[in-house]
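Review box. Two proteins, two foldings.
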Amino acid sequence: WIIAACDDPAVERIEQTVYRVDRKSPELAALKEAAGRKKVRVMIEPRARFDELNNLRLAEELGAAGVEVGFGFGRLKLHAKIALVTRREADGVRLYTHLSTGNYNAVTARQYEDLAILTASPGIGADARKFFDAVWDGKIPEGFKYLVPAPGALRRRLLALIREETEA
């Protein structure tokens, strides 16, 4: 999907988090190549255990290719697996969001299963936009309508849902 977005002339912007990705990924090559034609932004968590050096090297490579590179911040790890594609369509701009439990890593994807959703939901896309804008500015993302971030909001939301089901 990301490779297709890189090749699609209607796609204006691609943003993605990187936590643990394999260096030979065709997706990374496509992002580097696309950076000359569209806005490409990658947020990297440098504290991915055992992959710190790989992520720093990746940041250098992506930056040299014209990709805008940002990093995780503060005491919280940027552990989100999220990608956002902004595409101009006949009826206006549409946001496509991919949320995953996986690391966008082709090697580990062969070892275990992950869950993911790909959606064009405007609400989820707006939340993903808030996420990327906040993280890029070094702020903790907040004010979501659909996404429920950890550590604080996710725990509270799950406990509230459990209470509601128990009462029902």
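Next protein.
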Amino acid sequence: GGAASAPGRVQQLAATVSLAAAPTEVQAIADRVARLAVSDGGFVQSSHVQVQQGSTSEANLTLRLPSARLSAALASLGQLAPERGESQSLQDITDAYDAARRRLADATAERQALLRALSAASSEGQIDSLRERLSQARSAVAQARSALQAVSQRASTAEVEVTVIGDAHVGSEGPTLHRGLHDAGRVLTVTLIVLLIAAAVLVPLALLLAALATGRSAWRRYQRERT
């Protein structure tokens, strides 16, 4: 089922999708999955495709997609090939995000305090000691900022595991039939529209012809009676 997000929380989304394709179509479907990831603003983190004659063909891809595009991407993946399974998960990482943000704030405050102390130091020993501590503080700030960015990245991108399984029972006639039905539906729709338009034109014309025929018959009967 879908994973519902909560307002004000920092959450990491993930999903797994299993698709079935004809063994000869596994590579093509895997390529379409990769293109779909790029078109949705993501990328392929890893990909492994195994296509063998007379053996099981399978493709495994790990996608990184924008969390906001996850639902739309899953819907698009389901249109590439028959879907055998789908699952979504949600992990709340608000505590980790808040902790990383506090570490960055503390490290930044300590660096600012050391800078103020260095500007007020007078002895050579104090200056050397403060400079050494300031170097350590800069490193701590860089590490804290990197940790916060990593947590933010987990929240802004969703990991999607896609498996394409070669299935001999899935042939090209499935998609072809689907396209055929779709085309047939469009043809039927156009035909109905044409018939409705024709009816709108022909029905009044038929009524007019019937009236004329009735009038002509009445006129002949009137002429016979006079005679």
